[in-house]
Amino acid sequence: MINRQEVKAIIRKFEEREGIRGVIICDSSGLPIDSNMDIEISEEIAAYVTSLIGKGKQVVKALKEGGLKFIRLETSKGETMIALEEQLILIILK
Description:
alpha+beta; five-stranded antiparallel sheet
């Protein structure tokens, strides 16, 4: 399992990039481990993303395309990038 210092280092790494509005790191079940955002907002976003991941995995399975690794959502206000790792879910709001 990833330790607290590694989680903080990941958040700092992305915070330094221009245009990043938020970083949330969740465990594999979608519970926020840490974030640079308000906890209530982090929990709400994590819940929606976890649901989206579930649907995305269903689509990938139905298409027989292997495993889901990354989701990118472009919106009129920016983009949300979701990276799925074995033990973590990384959510970047740009």
